[in-house]
Task: structure prediction
Amino acid sequence: MTAAVPPPVEIVGMSKRFGALTALADVSLRLPPGSFHALLGENGAGKSTLVKCVMGYYRPDAGRVLVDGREYAITNPRQAHELGFGMVYQHFTLVPSMTVLENLVLGRADLPAVIRWDDERARLEAFLGRMPFTVSLDRPVAALAAGEKQKLEILQQLSLGRRVLILDEPTSVLTLEEADQILGVLREMTEERRLTVVLITHKFREVQAFAREVTVLRFGRDVGGGLVTDLTRDDLVRMMIGTAAVPEAAARAPIAERPVALEVRDLTVASDRGVEAVRGVSLAVRSGEIVGVAGVSGNGQRELVEVLAGQRRSESGEIRVAGAPCRRTRVEMRRRGVFALTEEPLRNACVPAMSVAENLAFRTFDDPRLIRTGVFVSRRALRAEARELIARYGIRCQGPDARLETLSGGNVQRTLLARELSGDVAVLIAHNPCAGLDFAATTEIRARIVRARNGGAAVLLLSEDLDELLELSDRIAVMFEGRFVYETPREAADPHVIGRHMVSHG
Amino acid sequence: MSEVGWWGVLIAVVGGAIRVSTPYLFVSLGETLTEKSGRVNLGLEGTLVMGAMSGYAVAHLTGSPWLGVLVAGMAGATFGLAHGAICNLPRVNDIAVGIALFLLGTGLAFHLGKPFIEPSAPRLPHFALGAWSASPQVRAALEINALFVVGLVLAPLLLWGLRNTRWGLVVRTVGDNSDAARALGYSAEQVRAMATMAGGFLAGVGGSFLSLYYPGTWNEGLSSGQGLMAIALVIFARWNPMHCFWVSLLFGGATALGPALQSIGITTHYYLLNAAPYALTLVLLVWSSSTRHTLVGAPSELRISR
Result:
C-alpha cells in the first residue's frame, strides 16, 4: 500500500481492561490526512494501550477503527501494516547483529524466499535519496548511535509505505537537536500531506513545538485537548497531572568550597564486548556538589557507573574517596560512605523476588544491630527497620514482606533511595534515577538527591535527560565515546551547545 | 619408533577426523540452527541415540540404509518438535526440558532397541578416494562416507541460507530480538518450534551415522556424549556453520588420537588419550570464554533463566 496521501483515520470509543484495571476508557481520536496529533500523559495513562489496540497488539474490549470511512477489525500487527499503519517503538525493534540493509529488508511483508541483495540495495539507495536524512546501509545496527537508530526506525516505516506513523516516545534517547531535526522533518512531511503522525510523549515542549492537535490522557480517560495553539503549558500540566499534590523541589544550599570527596584518575574500562568503553577518564567531585554527566546512552556511562559501584573491574586508573584509594568492595563502600543508584534497579541493584525488607537490608544485614546470637539475621529487626524506612521514604507497598517485584517503578526507586540515602552518604553515584517515573515521583526523587547534596554528599549524576541535569547539577560534563569532551558550570550551560557535544567533539 | 609409524598416526588421525566428525557435524549444525532462533536444545544427545536406534532398525527391516537415515531424521524431528512445543508453554525452561528429553530419548531408544542389538543392518556407502594408494592405511583413511559429504555441502548451505533467505533472516531476528520479530508480525514461538524441529532432524541423521556407518552397529554404548559435546562445540564455533565444520573435524581428530597411537603400539595412557575430546571440550570452552566480556556472535535471546 503506497498511496501518496494518507487515508483519514477515526478511532472511536476505544476501551481496554486488564483484569480489574481499566487501562483505557472510551477514548476517541480523529486523524485527518496530514495531521500531527500528540498524545500526552503520565506513565500508565493509557497512551501505549490506545495505540497498541489500534496496531492489533491488544484486542480492545470496545471501540472501532475507521480507515477511509470503512470499519476494520485489526487483530494483528500485519493487518495494521496493510492498512498503512506503522509504529516506532520506545525501545528499538531493530536487530542489532544485522546491518542497516538487512534490517530495512526484513520489514518487507512480501519478503522473497531468496533475497537478491543487489536489487534490494539499489531499491533502497533510490529510496534513501528521496529522504531528508540517511543512514549508511552497510553498518551493523549495533554500531549506530541512538539518534541514527531512531532515524533508521522511521526510515524503515517510510520505506515500507506506511502512511500513518505512530511514534511512542521517540525522543527519549535523543539529544535536543536530534529530536528537533527528526520531529521537524516529520512535521514537514505532514504539512505536505505525505504522512499522518501520532506522537506519544510526556514532553510539553515537543507538543507545543511540533504537534497541531493534542489529546491528554489520565488514568485511561480523555481529559482534554484540542488545537495546540489554543492551550498554554499550564493548561496541559493541569490536564496531565490533575489536582494531585506535586512535591516541591528542594532548595539548593549555596556551594561552599569543600574538599574533593570523589576523585577518578585516568580510568579505563572495557565493555562486555571487550572493547574500551571508558577511555582515560578523570574527574573530581567536591562534597556538597552535584556533577552532572550528559551523554547519549552507550558512550561509556554504564561501564563507568559499574566500576564506581564495584560491579565491574577497571583496566587501569585509580578511584580515590576523601583522598585515599578506594576498592569498591561491599565492606569498604559502606565504611567510606559510597552509595549508588544504578540504572534499572530491578536488574542492577535489587532482587525482584525478595521482600522489600530484605532488599532494604542489602547493605546492613550483617550490621550488629540486625544480628542476633552472633550469626543469625533477626527477621524482626529487619522488619522493624524496613517499616521505619517505608514510612520515612513513603514507599507504597503491602508491607515489609511484599516482594519487590510487586511494587510500581516509582516505589522500587524509592526503596533503592531508602537503602542508599539513609546512611552517612559521602559519595553518591546516580544513573538515570528518574527514568520511566511519573511527574510526582520524579520531583520527589530529584528533591532527595538535592537534599543529599545539601547534606554534604558528593554526587555524580549521569543522566540521559538533559532537563534533569540542568535542574540539578552544579557542573555539567559531556561524555562521548568514553571520554569527557566538554564541561561547563551550571550558570553558563546552554542545552544546544551541550547537545552538540553529545554527538561529536565539535 | 619408525618414521613410517608417525606418518601412520597422522594418517589415522586425519582419517579418523573425517570418520568420527560426522555426528558432531550434524548435531552441531542442528544446534546452531536452533540456537540462532534463541533456544537451547540440550536434549540432542537423546535425539542422537534415538536416531541411531531407529535408523538401524529401519535399515535392518527394509534393507535400505538411506531409508534408515530418513526415519532417524524424522524421529529426531519429532523430538525437536516436542522440545519446541513444550518450551513454548509459559514459564517453561528450555534447559530443564532439554535434559528431560535427553533422558527420555536415551531411555526410549534402549527400550525399543533391545531386539536390534544382535541382527545386522546394511551399511551406508562410502567413496574410496584412496584407491590410488598401495598403503592400506591411506586407503582406510580416505574412505569418505556419504553422510560426511552431505554435511560438507550442508554447512556452507546453512551459512548461505541464514544470510540470504527469508527464513534465515527471520530465524536470526527471532534469536536476536524477539520484540522486533513480533513487531514485524512473526511469531517467535512458531519460528523457534520449527528451528528446533529442523535441528532435531539433523541430530537424528547424525545418530543414524553411528549405527549405520561407524561404528556401524546398534548397542547401548554407541554414543559417548557426542550429542552433548556438539552443543559445547557450537559455542566454540560462534554459531557459524562453517566453523562448526572445522571444529567438528578437530574434535573428530582428537577422538581418533587414542586408537591411532594404539595402532602403532603405544598403549600407555590409552584410556587417558581416549578422553582427549572431553579434555579438549573443557580447554576450548575455558579458553574461548571470559569473565570480562560476552561472546561475540551469541544470539541475544539465548538465556538460561527463562
The radius of gyration of chain A is 25 Å. The domain at 9-241 of chain A is CATH 3.40.50.300 (Rossmann fold).
